[in-house]
Amino acid sequence: MPYHSIFIHTSSRKLELYEGNRLIRHYPIAVGKGATPTPTGHYTIATKTVYPGGVFGSRWMGLSIQGYGIHGTNNPASIGQAVSKGCIRMHNHDAESLFQQIEIGTPVIIQR
């Protein structure tokens, strides 16, 4: 099975999916606003949920830091903005694509 990792760049609002050392996809994202920034650091995917409900769109990928995750959105116009409470928002179709390609335990590196 291929080894995947996720790099999130909060300043450029971009999520990159790597297979080994090779960039295979990149996605536009929304990140935390000034008062509730997306936490930088090294985490892993801890949970995966289909149709979590509410503002989380069609997919939820919970991080190993409690209360934060990568998820879809019911507000696609927010993608590209710094508007969340710290989570990483994606277009639902992008969240579904990412969800299919990663496993529990996938490393997630969040940097500015």
Automatic annotation (TrEMBL):
Pathway terms, separated by semicolons: Cell wall biogenesis; peptidoglycan biosynthesis
Annotated Gene3D superfamilies: L,D-transpeptidase catalytic domain-like (2.40.440.10)
Molecular function terms from GO: glycosyltransferase activity; peptidoglycan L,D-transpeptidase activity
InterPro entries referenced in this protein's UniProt entry, alphabetically: LD-transpeptidase, LD_TPept_cat_dom, Transpep_catalytic_dom
Signal peptide range: none
L,D-TPase catalytic domain: residues covered: 4-111
Protein known as: L,D-transpeptidase
Gene source species: Desulfosporosinus fructosivorans
Lineage: Bacteria, Bacillati, Bacillota, Clostridia, Eubacteriales
